[in-house]
Every structure is written in C-alpha cells, then in structure tokens.
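Forwarding these from the shared drive since the link keeps breaking.
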Amino acid sequence: MTGHFPLLIPGAVSAAREDVLAPYDGSRIAAVDIGDAGAVEQALHNAHSLFADRAMWLPTWRRIEILQKTMELMRDKMDELALEAAREGGKPLTDSKVEVARAIDSMQICIETLRTQGGTEIPMDVNTASAGRMAFTHKLPIGVVVAVSAFNHPLNLIVHQVAPAVASGCPVIVKPAADTPLSCFRFVSMLREAGLPEQWCQAALIPDNVAAKLVADSRVAFFSFIGSARVGWMLRSRLSAGTRCALEHGGAAPVIVAEDADLRDALPLLAKGGLYHAGQVCVSVQRVFVHASIARAVADGLREQAQSMRVGDPTHEDTDIGPLIRHAEVDRIGDWVDEAVKHGGQLLCGGTRLSESTYAPTVLFDPPSDAKVSTMEIFGPVICVYPFSDLDDAIARANALPYSFQAAVFSNRLDIATRVYSRINASAVMINDHTAFRVDWMPFAGLGQSGLGIGGIPYTMRDMQVEKMMVLRSQAW
C-alpha cells in the first residue's frame, strides 16, 4: 500500500515530491508528485481542448459502461480502499468500510440518474405567437469542471465531485486535500482502468496559490469546493465571469431534545453523530439544547457514551475514534475546551490530549454562549449540552449563528417536531435522528455561511449540465 503516486495529468512534469504521512502515528504511507503552474496549464489545456472537440465527447452509453466497470474494480478492492482511507484520513476502519460502500453506491446513483433524467417539453401552440411550434430541452455537459476536495471523507467526497462530472460528460480536474490524496489517485486510476480516456479526469496535488489560479481560469465552467468557509468564499470571489459553483462548508449543528424524548434511543445516536470520525464532519452534532427537566440526564448519558468509546489506531477494527487530521488541531480543540471551562462551562468528561494526534471524547455542560465551542464549528470530538425552559428560546439560540446546515429534534410529539422543523434555520431537519444522517441521493446543502448550491449526486449532476432548448417551427404542426 506504500509507493509513489505520479501526477495524473498527461503531458505534465512533476515539480517536486512530498510524503503522505498517517495522522495517527506519522508513519510514511506514500510519496506524491506535486504539480506547479505548468502542470495546471497543461491540465486546463487538455480538458478545454477535449471539451471543445465535440467529436471527442463520450456518448451516454459509454459513460455508463465506464462507471459500471469502475464499480466492479472498487468492489474488488473494497478492503484495500477502506484501509488506505483509514490510514491517510484517520477515520476508523469500520467507518471507512462504510465510506467505501457509500462511494460504490454513489457510482450506481450516477448511473441511475443518467438512465432516468431527461429534458422537458416547453408548452407551445397555446397562443398565436407560439402557434405552429414545439419546444423541448436536452441535457448537455456544462464544460470543464474543477473540484477542490476535503480530507475527512477521502474517497466518498472525491466520488461525489468527480463521478457526477464524468457521468455528465464534463472533463474534470481534481485537487484532493494535501493530507489525503491517495484515495483520490486510486479512484482516478480506476476510472482510467475502466476505460475513461486520461484527459477526461486529471488529478494532482498543487500548492494553494497555484490552485487559486486554476480555479480562477476562464476555461473553467463549474467549480466544486468542499472545505472551510474562509477558503471557499475566497475562491468564489476569484471565479471568472460565467463560472458557476457549488460550495460545501461546515456548520455548528444544533439539536433540540424535548422533555418527552426517548433517551434510550436518542443518546447513542447523539454520541455517534457528535464523536464519529473525531467530530471531523461538517454536520457533526455540536450544540444540543435539552429541556431543563432532563438536561443533566442527557449530559450524563452522553458522558457515559463518550467514555465507552475506544480511541486509538484507526486501522484497528475495535477503534471507535481515531486521530485529528493534524497535531495543531488537537492543540486548537484543547484551547477551545479550556476557554469554555475557564468561563463557566462544566467539563463532564474528556478535555485532555491523549497523544500528539488524539483528543479524548469530550462532553461540556452549559458552556458560555459566547465561547468558541458555542459560536464556531469545533470539528473535533466535543459535544456541548445546554439546558432550556422555553422551546422558542431554544430555537432562537440555535438560530443565533450565521451557519445553517442540518439540524435535528428529538420528540414524540408531532407539534413539537413540526414547530422546530418550521422555525429552525436548516436545509434539512432530522426527526429523532442525529444531524449527520445522510444518504447520497438526497439534497445536501449548506445555507448562509455554510455553503452555496445543493450537493447529493442527482443535484450535483444537474449543476454540471445545461438544458439546451430547441424550438421547432413547422407548417405541418
């Protein structure tokens, strides 16, 4: 599983080489070639020239054939893909296996979308101006796609950005996260092994300043970004005129737990949703607002759940929580927790560094509303519990931040569930489930500072296509 990964850009020459290290113990996994401005120019030239030549476009049946063959290759390598994702990204092996299965299913969703999508008929012959005419639309690829990805789901995020582009008929250039490039390179190599011509999907690690030039190039038709809000909004501001985009950032997911909630059902879900992948999930459970009559019981229950989780080597089957992606993140999370405790929050468990790369799963009770853990995305294994007496006040507190992604409410009363659904700021509200629930055919969207556009395979494919209309005038119609 170690080795050397070259640039996946035909005609480009490597500028340098870097080692990819496992976040858990710093061991070397592989070496990866780094691209420079020349490599980016070559990738753009390859992709733009390919798209400009309509004779080179791949017919739909051929794209389906390639996607199907890629799925077969992924199934054959499921265990290797899961182990590599766990090693480079730190997500425990059990969860990485789920990620690989999801990635394969996402490929199937691309195929199903191709087989079921279509254009629309536009009504004509409904007045004298439209008489003798018929009109319809047909879906066509938008053009060159550039995808910049994140580390926390190193295979499935790449699949979510790259596979819809391939399915839609768009040449795609992908920059994986510097910490986790290997799963990306494996996937692109599998696409090529399945018959995709090399120029249709190119991948490389490139420095951030060079990546900004790639994103801003006028030959780019669509930009797909998954990562921090600071970087995403900055890159959007540099897009060339006409370039469309989708941005997926993070949030500070709120959960409201009513006094009638079934805690035996809720507590394991909340703990999993908040501590899964060491909290490095954009819709991870973070702020849990609980009716005062049961708030301490919920906090203590989450403490018990957190203390039962095993922190360690992500490649071991019995590990529940792995490392943070970088040592600096362990320091940051520790500082945030210390600040919350210093100013009145109660530390129920955790709050300590376990190693250079791991942090103990942490539950805080009623941290200050202005603390960083209450106002910013933690992106670490920390859950905050806040008591409330009035439901509308809890909703207002949940809505106080500029982030809006997925939210949740736990209650067996329909009126409480629907009141929270209708009033809380979110693109999706889970009823009696945690905020990190997702299947890959559903819409997945950050609102406000949490993002722009709609993710989910069918919705991403829609973004990467245009509907071109034909209006046919006929004397015989």
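-- next protein --
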Amino acid sequence: MIRFHAGSRTAVCALRYCAFAATVFGVFGCSSTLHLPPAPSPAEIPSLEERVAGDATDLQAAVRLGAAYWNANRLPEAESALIRARTLDPGAPAPAFFLGLTYEEMGRYADARREYTVYLEAAASEALRAAVRDRLVLLARSELESAVRAAVASEAELASTDPVPGTVGLFPFLYTGADPVYQPLSRALAEMLVTDLSQTDRLTVLERLRVQLLLDELALADEGMVEPGTAARAGRILGAGQIVQGRLDAIEEALQVDALVVPVGADREGVGASLSDEDALQRLFDLQLRLALELYAALGIELTPAERERVTRRPTENLQALLAFGEGLEAGDGGRFGAAEAHFARAIELDPQFDEAAERRDEARALDQASRTSTRNLARLDDEDLMTTPSPADFRRHEASLVEMWRYLPNVPGRDLAPEVFGTEGFGISALGRVEFIFQRPP
C-alpha cells in the first residue's frame, strides 16, 4: 500500500478540500467514495463525442457517452456506445447497468434482464444490487405480459398451429357462490392445482399468471370463461393442448367443484372429461387432492408412487391462510403489489409454514419496490460501481491541478498523512485503496 507523505506527488482527495476539488475533478467528484455521475446531461453529448473520437480507449468517456445518449432517449446510439465501452473492459459493471436501462426502455426485456444479471456479477454496492434484483422480478413479469400481447396479436397465425398435447393451462375457477368471503378460492385453487399437476415431467403446466394475463388481455367476461369455445381459443393462443376450467360454489359450509378438461387443436376440440366433487369446506384440501388425481387420470397420466407422494403434500391446511393467499394472488394480478404483499404476509401469520405464501410475499415486495422506481430514478442511485477508471489522458488533464491542491497540505518531511487525511475525514481502508487505484500515475 502506498504511504502518503508530505511533498509526495500522489494525488489525494479529502473532504475538507471538496470545494476546491470540485473544479479539479470535474466528472470524478469528491466524497467518501468517488463516483461517476450516472446520467450525464444530453448537453454533454458533443464534448463526450469529441473525447471518444480523440481517444478510443477512454472507458469513462465511452460509458458516459452511452449514458448521455440514454438520458436523451437516443436509445440505438446508447446501445452502440455502451457495447463499444464493454469491449474496453468486459468486466466493468457500468456498461452492463446502462445497457440494462437502455434495453428496458426499448421493451427488450429479456436483453435487459441479461445485462442486469451481468451487472450483478460484478457489482459491489449492495444498495443498487438490491434495486436491480427487484428490477429483475419486474422485468420477468413485463416479459410475460409482452409475450401474451404478442401471442394475441398473432392469433390468426396460431389458429392453424396445433398446440403440444402435453401442455396444460388452468383457468381460474369461476366462483358462483353468494358469499364473497370465498371468492379468493377462485385463484387459490387454480394455483394449487398448477402445483399439483407440475409434479411430473410428463406434463408441461403453464404458470397461472400467464393464463390470467391472457384472460385479462382478451377482456373475457366471467360468464364466458367456462365456455369450451373460449377455452379452445385461449388454448391455441397459449400453445396449450388442454385447458382445465371450471366453477366452484360454497353453499352452507359445503364446497362444490365442477371441472372440465377441454382438448385443443384440429380434430380434438369439443367437450372433454367432466369432473365434479363436493365436500365440507373444512375438508377443502381433501377435495383438492381428489380433484388433482382425477385430473391426472383425465389427462391420461398414471402417477408413479414418488409422483403421487409429491402430489399429496399440502402447502397449507389452513383455510383462512389459503383465502388470504387467494386475495394476494388477486391483488397481484391487478398490479396492486403492496396490497398483495400484505395479504401474503397475513397468510404467513395464519400459517408460518406456508412457504409458497412467503415466496409470493417476497416477489410482491420486489414488484412493489421496482414498479415505484422508474429507470430515471434507478439511474440516479448513488453507486460506486458506476465509476470507471480514468484514462492516461484524464490523468494528464487534471494532474497539474491535483499537484497544486497538494500544496495546501502541511509540508512536514517524513510525516504520514494517511491517518490525518483519511482517518479523520471518514475514509476507511477500502476507500483508501480505491483512491490509490484511481489516481495512481499511469505508466
């Protein structure tokens, strides 16, 4: 480690020199850590373009130019500049971060997720890491929504394509009961059956949210959700060979469930296997298990003993917890992520072993945080990972002023100024290492 002595030509940035250093460092700034301002003004584009044209190895200028293009909504130019910046230092987190922002605004959600994942592999700041992890959850949902819209737009082409027979989609069960307390079972029962039918690799079960997003996109009325023709149409758009749909009713502490397996595809459409069961509400979970096993039989799947044992596992046996879980699903489907988090948290209070509710609570929390943070606000987060090392040209540009600043320090030969300059000004060893890394004279 370099020792900082009076008379040394090593550049030092201390908090008590911030007013002076602000004019010296320009893009570097001066604080307990040194930062690259994450979103340069579009007004800086001409000067940054000149810097990049003059020095193709200037990583900082390349990143800042890409970020400035992004800030000016010149997204194709931002992408090109940031890809060039990545070639200068493939491990630098800043290009990946701004590429993620760029792709997100371009609607290229898969590419944005890839770049944010690359950023997380190199990032050090936990604050921005947490925000980006939340962003990944939101982007996964955005990607799913985009895929559903694209499928609906391509419905005419999909009509002539046979879905894969082993792919199954489950509609939410249409609740026809008079007591609204049990309405949340509509989505909760469908979600639990999705889990049950996923216990074998001989079926591909579409996630419940994908099916719900399609129903919302098509604006299907509740009364139409149980028509076989509606199910067949949705199945073709989803690429599902079978659709499971049905209704449930709660009458005087009894629950009745009717389900229908609708085959989809040329020469296959029509009324499929019809299932019906009834039991006391307090034995809902026994009814669900029987229904799952009957669905397997209707789909032509004979379970192995291991698969059957997995299907019999219950995520919860608390009816009130399941109702709260269903309320969380409904709120989340509607984009009310904060309310969804509260409902899932309530489900966990009622059944602390309800692991699926805990997973959904964390997901809702991430969605709530990310949905309330725009890409512009995300780019304003103060983060040391968005700093890049200045080039030799940067060093030469500021060296004379840095040396001049050094004259303000006490000139006592042999005196180690590191504890005074860094220790008393809130600098730690890690920050000292970064200062050495940034301002050491290039070879």
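The radius of gyration is 30 Å. The longest strand covers residues 240-251.

- D.
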